[in-house]
Amino acid sequence: MLVGRVPGATVVLTPAGAVAGVDTRGAPWGTRELDLLDPSTLVQRVHAIVLADDLASVGGVVRWLAERHHGFPVGTRAGEVVPIVPAAAVGSGGDDVGYQACEAAVAAAGAVVPDAIVVVGQTAAALVVVDAELDKAGCRRVAMSAHDGLVRAGVRLPATVFALATGNPTGTGLDDLCTAAANAVLDSATRR
């Protein structure tokens, strides 16, 4: 997993793919590919998640991944992929800084998991990473609990919260993951 941050965008890259879920409450400013995170859809893994000022940043992330042949295979040749990049925007008027965020990405080695990123603008967006092997339904459950961390922090704007599982089989129960995720988002929201 790689994390890239530049003014206006935060990108979590998972080039090999990772399982994710989402919880949206209220009317978000802008979102992309959230329906693909539903457990009933064909796509099982995402290649990045973007939290940005504007959805324009997603184009650069998709381009960066496609140039490196990371994505959902749609053909038999190496470059025939479509990167799956769910995103949430918290405002408008941003630039396409997604590619820059990808170029600035560094490995998240040594990160404390669960870890959370919270962005607040006209709406709020958050991402929590949990060290677990989960399916999309489990990730959605974690995202719903993580959303409670925003509320506990006093962030009562419409919000989109993503949960991303590392894929490591740690044996941690779903209830414990949900509690830890809510606390991680609370901590991140109160530090911002």
TrEMBL record:
Gene Ontology molecular function: any one: aminopeptidase activity
Keyword tags: Aminopeptidase, Hydrolase, Protease
ATP-binding in keyword set: no
Domain of life: Bacteria
PANTHER family (UniProt xref): BLR5678 PROTEIN, D-AMINOPEPTIDASE
Similarity section: Belongs to the peptidase S58 family.
Name used for this protein in its record: L-aminopeptidase/D-esterase-like protein
Organism: Saccharothrix tamanrassetensis
